[in-house]
Amino acid sequence: MNNKLRKSATDRSITGVCGGIAEFFGISSLGVRLLFIFLPASLLIYLILANLIPDRPPSL
Questions:
Q1: 3-state secondary structure of 7
Q2: What is the pTM for the complete model shown?
Q3: Does residue 35 lie in a domain region?
Q4: DSSP H stretches of helix in 1-60
Q5: Among 6, 8, 10, 32, which residue has the least CB neighbours within 10 Å?
Q6: Assigned domain for 60 exists
């Protein structure tokens, strides 16, 4: 399995964290974004993930 958790290069609203999580699990990015909206302390979790998850290398 070569699927690594990375920020999305195509499905990004702010930094691509939710899009990257959605691509990793194969689910809708809208669902991940809604989860972050309703999750307590979601801003802190999002900021931590935005700094820890590496960017996806640009494709040609």
A1: strand
A2: 0.85
A3: yes
A4: 17-25, 29-38, 42-52
A5: 10
A6: no
